[in-house]
Design goal:
The complex is a heterotrimer. By secondary structure, chain A is an all-alpha fold. Chain A has helices at 14-24, 26-48, 80-116, 118-133, 136-147, 151-178, 181-188, 193-230, 241-250, 257-284. Helix content of chain C is 31%, strand content 23%. Classes of the chains: A mainly alpha, B alpha/beta, C alpha/beta.
Chain lengths: 290, 330, 331
């Protein structure tokens, strides 16, 4: 007894379907392209730019935009455009790698707490609450004192204060998925807790987590810039958009563009990630399918 | 234990405790979801378990499969007491005990293909691999009336009725001898229900599988069951052979249930008297004393509010728990 | 006498990314004063959308009413202004929804929700509504009305919430109530209570009732006339007794034959309706039921769904039903 196929629609996998929907969202695509361009620029800047980020040219200080220096030079004669792209490396790296730490800690903690449930879940969540209430700045200053001003410290510091949200999110997702019949069916087949978590629960909870992480990136970028601005971030001469703004502040009346260009760069990158995040959220929402 | 008795449940109870508190979790209330249920199912037989929402019938099914840990009582499968087995010992037994769910949307992992879904019992239990695995999947698909080319499709590409077929194929994969069917057709359109019921019938006949058929739909239960048990607020009110129950319902609740089901025939309906129960179903946290049904029973009298009637045989395998029948006196 | 409500050739389309879904594809029905009709069909047939179209409660972005008239007491509701529609909703026509969990506002007491309707339509002040609210709660059988009107929806069971919905629906003495699957989410004994209540009230107030359901039994018990819907169209309509005794359309006949009946001897095997409903994005040509129909003839693919009379007042859109003679059996 053969039965007629249900939908006459083309066959997609779930990720494929989400990707198609994402493609339709122009803002998200624009955001993605901007990120890609900035990323490529950041990677290839040593090959493209004739200047290094630390190369000083004391004969050419505080010059406005010109053919030789499209965005001008700073107080030490360094090329702003080049420094911006080197700074992009910092921003992108911190934005993205901090998320790796966030996922590495937050996801398992939340998932474990939700799967075990009961008193253990209760205790873990109270500890998470304590972490959440802990002032981020103090933790960062502490880490800075111990680890110094390297980029790795930035990853760690920002990651360690941001994992809490992902933990809560993954716990919530897994708690609601635990109730689903397909999980009960797997238990009825004799599946172990590990199998269920890895094959059923985590893959289905990825959607909102991916979106949350994408939205976390602009926050991390901004956090790094702010920290570098107040001096507890990246050490000079390594350019970060934050410390470029601080340097620009010293000469704000002579060359206001030195503050403006990095600020615009931060804004553009954050906006690009936000558009992408919006698009991902819409694309991954199963209810909005078709 | 009889030679072809496949499931025996004795005095099954399941209480859920409601707790509150930060760390210490004080118990503030207890939900008596299942409160002393006893029945038996023979090989190849279908026991219909009817009742309304909250009566505990789904909980009974889950306790049978040890998906909930029963608070008390025993569940025997082919003579073995399942409640005494550890999860590890239970694993191989699970091949023989399967379940079909009500919700064709929630019972399938949306990220699994049909092959993944149907083959999951084979993978978890290590029953088949490689070529044998693929062949078995195709065999199961055809068995439930789905075309083989649909093996790589995702649940969202199937209709509700087809998803239920996938659920049935999955339940059959490990060649079970007993399946708990938890409202398998309630979420389907009327025109599809008959298809799935026929499929369940065919499968049972072909493989000799016993069913616990849980449903609130009395017409469907009558069609597929050999014997029927009526549940209310965690206890059994009446158990009997199918024809006997529908011809001579003894318990007032059964009578009210049957009367409440509208029959698809205006002429018949125009001449039918309906028993309309008063009041709402009491809360299982605070169940009534004596006979659980007495607060809504049109025939309640003196002992009903104080003495709990026993589920007792009134003759010919027809058991009822009601003071109207002397056998129920403790 | 002119019918209270006359829906004429109503068509409502969904504009989706995949294409146009003709959720309601040219349907006509009418309800007389005090009459109870049933709009019967399965999920996706368009019955709920047609009701929402009458009250113009559709989300504006993806859905449009593209054709037809809805004459209520002689006035075309589809052409009415937004202000006039607001007066009609709850005042002249009220609706009871399926899901009692979500149709009541969880942060308002039920007394407040009932009085809200009274304030809007009867121009009563909050204080004056109290007595009326108590009266209505008593009417729908909610005990201890004075105390319970200060409770919130989550304090009530599903059946009780539906009673509250009924109270809201009748509060302004509407001429027409549309009940969309009002008892699908409740148990069968509560269903009996609610429908008996609804029948009693509609009789007493002489209110017309459109009962939207997929349940053949409910239709048989409560409806005088029935309209059978399939894939956005009406395939059969007529007095309930006639339609059940002499189904004029193979879909109706198929449904009736496939349902196990408590009052008949048990069959060893059910006769299902094979196949499944068509994909709304790609409807078949001609008669929408034709891919599943065992009686199809080549003419079916060109059928435009014109009605033929089966018996007096009883019509079917099947080209094979002429003068009550059909190739399928009578029930």
């Amino acid at each position: 007894m053969a039965v007629v196929a249900s939908t006459s629609q083309p066959h997609h996998t779930l990720w494929g379907d989400a990707f198609i929907r994402l493609r339709r969202n122009r803002l998200a695509i624009a955001g993605g392209i901007v990120i890609l361009l900035i990323g490529l620029g950041a990677i290839f800047v040593p090959l493209i730019s004739p200047y290094g980020y630390a190369k000083q040219d004391l004969d050419a200080i505080l010059q406005g935009p010109s053919w030789g220096h499209p965005l001008g030079t700073d107080a030490l004669g360094r090329d702003v455009l080049t420094r911006l792209f080197y700074g992009a490396r910092i921003s992108l790296a911190v934005g993205l790698f901090a998320q790796a730490i966030v996922l590495a800690i937050g996801l398992p903690v939340g998932a474990f707490s939700a799967w075990v449930g009961g008193r253990v879940d209760n205790i873990i969540m109270r500890l998470v609450d304590v972490m959440y209430a802990f002032p981020d700045i103090l933790l960062i200053i502490l880490l800075r004192a111990i680890l110094g001003g390297t980029i790795y410290m930035m990853f760690l510091a920002i990651g360690l204060v941001a994992w809490v949200n992902v933990a809560r999110l993954s716990r919530g997702q897994i708690l609601s998925l635990k109730q689903q019949d397909f999980v009960t069916a797997a238990r009825a087949m004799g599946a172990s807790g590990r199998y269920i978590t890895l094959r059923h629960l985590l893959p289905n909870s990825l959607g909102p987590i991916i979106v949350a992480v994408t939205f976390n990136v602009p926050r991390a970028i901004f956090a790094e810039a702010a920290l570098s601005y107040i001096g507890i971030g990246i050490n000079p001469p390594t350019p970060s958009w934050g410390n470029m703004i601080r340097d620009g502040y010293d000469v704000i009346f002579a060359a206001p563009y030195l503050m403006i260009f990095p600020a615009i760069a931060i804004g553009i990158l954050m906006l690009a990630f936000t558009f992408l995040g919006d698009g991902l959220r819409d694309a991954l929402d199963p209810r909005l399918r078709r | 234990m009889g030679k072809d008795l496949i499931i025996e449940v004795r005095n099954l109870t399941k209480y859920f405790t409601v707790t509150s508190g930060l760390f210490l979790q004080k118990r503030i209330a207890q939900v008596r979801a299942v409160d002393g249920v006893t029945f038996a199912i023979h090989k190849g037989e279908t026991l219909g378990l009817v009742g309304e929402s909250g009566c505990g019938k789904t909980t009974v099914g889950k306790c049978l499969l040890q998906l909930y840990q029963p608070t008390g009582g025993k569940v025997f499968f082919q003579g073995k007491d399942l409640c005494r087995l550890s999860e590890k010992e239970l694993r191989p037994v699970r091949q023989k005990l399967q379940v079909i769910f009500q919700d064709p949307y929630g019972s399938l992992n949306p990220r699994f293909t049909a092959t993944d879904i149907i083959g999951e019992p084979l993978r978890i239990q290590g029953i088949a691999r490689g070529r044998a695995y693929r062949d078995r999947i195709v065999e199961l698909l055809n068995l439930v009336g789905l075309a083989s080319y649909m093996a790589d499709r995702y649940p969202h590409e199937f209709s509700g009725g087809q998803r239920q077929r996938l659920g049935i194929a999955r339940a059959l994969a490990s060649q079970p001898s007993f399946i708990v069917c938890d409202e398998p057709v309630s979420a389907l359109d009327v025109s599809i229900q008959a298809q799935i019921i026929n499929l369940l019938d065919d499968v049972q006949e072909q493989f000799g599988i016993a069913y616990l058929f849980i449903s609130h739909d009395l017409s469907v239960v009558r069609h597929i069951s050999d014997r029927v048990a009526v549940m209310y607020l965690g206890r059994l009110m009446e158990v009997s052979d199918r024809d006997e129950l529908y011809k001579r319902p003894l318990h007032p609740y059964t009578q009210a249930l049957l009367s409440a089901v509208p029959i698809p025939d205006p002429v018949v309906e125009a001449h039918r008297a309906t028993i309309v129960l008063k009041g709402e179903v009491p809360s299982p946290i605070n169940p009534p004393s004596g006979c659980l049904f007495h607060t809504r029973c049109p025939k309640a009298f003196e002992p009903c509010s104080t003495v709990t009637p026993l589920l007792a045989d009134t003759g010919g395998g027809h058991a009822v728990a009601c003071h109207l029948y002397p056998a129920s006196q403790p | 006498m002119a019918p209270l409500l006359k829906v004429d050739d109503l068509a409502t389309y969904f504009y989706t990314q995949g294409g146009v879904v003709k959720a309601v594809d040219g349907i006509s029905y009418e309800v007389a004063r005090g009459e109870t009709i049933a709009l019967m069909g399965e999920s996706g047939c368009g019955k709920t959308i047609s009701a929402l179209s009458i009250l113009r409660l559709l989300p504006a972005s993806q859905v449009k009413i593209v054709a037809g008239q809805v004459l209520f007491d002689g006035v075309d509701l589809l052409k009415a202004s937004k202000k006039e529609m607001r007066k009609v909703r709850g005042g002249n026509i009220s609706m009871i929804f399926q899901e009692p969990m979500t149709s009541l506002n969880p942060v308002l007491t039920i007394g407040r929700q009932i009085s809200e309707v009274l304030e809007l339509h009867q121009n009563m002040k909050r204080r004056e509504t109290v007595q009326e609210v108590i009266r209505l709660l008593n009417l729908v059988g909610i005990p201890q009305a004075e105390r319970r009107m200060r409770d919130y929806p989550h304090h009530f069971s599903g059946g009780m919430r539906q009673r509250v919905m009924i109270a809201i629906a009748i509060s302004c003495r509407p001429k027409l109530i549309i009940a969309d699957e009002p008892t699908t989410a409740v148990d069968v004994t509560i269903q009996a209570q609610l429908l008996e209540l609804l029948r009693g009230i509609t009789r007493e107030l002489n209110t017309s009732l459109i009962l939207i359901t997929h349940n053949l039994g409910i239709v048989a018990r409560y409806a005088q006339r029935i309209y059978v819907m399939y894939a956005g169209r009406i395939v059969e309509h007529g007095p309930a007794q006639d339609v059940y005794r002499y189904p004029g359309h193979p879909y109706t006949a198929g449904l009736l034959a496939s349902v196990p009946r408590l009052d008949e001897p048990r069959k060893t095997r059910l006769t299902p309706v094979e196949g499944q409903p068509p994909d709304p994005l790609y409807p078949p040509p001609g008669c929408p039921f034709q891919p599943r129909c065992t009686y199809g003839v080549p003419q079916c693919q060109r059928s435009k769904g014109d009605f033929v009379e089966v018996t007096s007042g009883h019509y079917s859109s099947c080209c094979l039903a002429q003068n009550g003679v059909t190739p399928w059996e009578k029930t």
